[in-house]
Amino acid sequence: MWEFKLPTINEEEESVKPFRHISIAALSLLLVALMLAVACAPAAPAPAPAAPAAPATGPAVPEVKIGLIAPMTGDVKTFGESTKNAFDIAVEEANRAGKVKITYIVADDKNDATEGTNAATKLINQDNVNAIVGSVASKVSIPISEVAQKSKILQISPTSTNEKVTIDGVRKDYVFRACFIDPFQGLVMAKFASGTLGAKTAAIMYDKGNDYTVGLAENFKAAFEAAGGKVISMDSYGKDDVDFSAILTRMASNSPDFLFLPDYYNKVNLIAQQAREKGVKAAFGGGDGWDSADLDTKAVDGGYYSNHYSPEATTPEVVEWVQKYQAKHNSVPDALATLGYDATNLLISAIERAGSSDSTAIRDAMTKTDGFKAVSGSISFDPNGNPIKSAVVIQVKDGEHKYVETVNP
Amino acid sequence: MGDAGYLAQQVINGLQLGFVYALIALGYTMVYGIIRLINFAHGDVFMVGAFVGFFSISALQLSLIPALVLAILVCMILGMTIERLAYRPLRLKNAPRIAALITAIGVSIFLEYFTSLKFVFGPNIRTFPRPFELESWNVAGLIITNVQLIVFAVAILMLLLLQFVVYRTKMGMAMRGVSFDFDTSRLMGINVDRVVTFTFALGSALAATGGVLFAIAYPQVHPFMGIMPGLKAFVAAVLGGIGIIPGALLGALIMGQAEVMTAAFISTTWKDAVAFGILIVVLMVKPTGLLGKRGTDKV
Q: Residue B224 needs a FRET pair 20 to 30 A away by CA distance; which of A20, A198, A217, A311 works?
């Protein structure tokens, strides 16, 4: 049977081949046509609404469509919810102020790189957005930045701290962020552990598949050793791992002073709980991934993490923002919300200054941002699209997140 | 803690993991032994078991044993339903085994994404509330927790129960008969369909137990939590010789120890590589698995 069948299949393939050539040719033609259509599409309708609007309301108000990409479900859903809450407030304010007219589309990336890339591709090619706010996690923002850069659509990530978001060999000049970057965050926690806490030895556990935790772990290690401390062990685990008993049993016998857990709250909850069960007595520390209402404050009690802002600060921007957020969402805004608000406002301010919905014009205006008064501090960009600003260290104590100190770059 | 104490402590860690794998691996092996089907949906039945445990403890305020019983009942019904709706129609039509296998993968994906829907379990990670406070004792330098004791006790109890059912009851005898020869069993007056349904129910009950124990030991539940344990348990079943009950237990305990020992003495990065490497080596030397016989495929 097989002997007879194989040749027939081959024959069929032979006969199909010419068609395949044709279809490739046809496809490429179609692609070219599509690309032309896409290239022309935003240009064609733009003058139409502008013409009647101009005489009626004086200077034309730029109409922009913004895409928000955030993890609305999945393992870090509180990050997405906070970001969206804040985004809503910023857009509402801007529309009320009337200097721009904003419509928006929200896409859920489920904290997954593939989902995020798909969402970005859809927002750019199908929904024709002019700019993207997002995503939260570096591992999602990095692939999105590739799509955005290639399509020349401006992207601003509120909270992705990995360096590679804005620069990977070459500067992705359409990509910005509203937060500090991992080398700085790792440095803050290393300084804090060796200085304020007086830790001599540290252990690190990180997710080997997550750019964010890898970056933080490496930067912490370098800075902690530079400060004269000793990193006893550096263990990696996988995204789906739930049993850390082997690592933690070993750690308990090494008894480090400080255990650095630069992962998101769900994993931290699991590790911290098991660490105490196995008799690890080290003080816990982490990065901004801890900042969630779902952090198990009992498991990490006494732990410290670096963050972008503290709602306990007394600057007028913070006070006003906390009031505004509380009135609308009935909770204190976490750093995710605050940076979501800052990122959206940075974008809106750039659009207003550009006076246009053209992504390149917005990009140019964004680059020129100088001393923008954001809630999390005054923002100017360095040449790599990273804001230069300070970090705070927060302690988790008795179920509360308490401000400890501010660390300047 | 001395070196011996440290080793013993890691052995206990490995046992905890191994017993949970064993509960899942047994379900794989029994179903395979009876109808030669690798039921890939098994890991997801495990997940449903963990969720039922979660809801019965958090929403219904049940204690451990009633929660476990409820999880077992729900999963038995689920397992029998899956068999009835997805696998039996194929079996009756004498569909090729590959069709059944693909169906199993389909059922697995369906369960994962259906339970991810907002009105079912939802896609988010939830923290599993332990129905008791954690306590730990220091026995001769070893730290032993009540969670570990419960995992060991329940797992061993379930294994003894399974042994009893398979070797001491009429249904068990029928199961062994069917696994030996499907058609002859039917000629001997055994209701083969009932035996298959029963096997699914039994396997699902073990998976549910594994799910609840897993969630107590590692207190988080989400719709995709069954994938990795399911895969590891499947490997354990193959390692021990698929279709052989003691083989599944042995394979699972080896997997548990291999993972923990690699992480403890070599590197955490090598953990899964070593566990799966052992499988490859065993299969190269003895393709039927550690306890597999030449004829294979027996319960």
A: A217
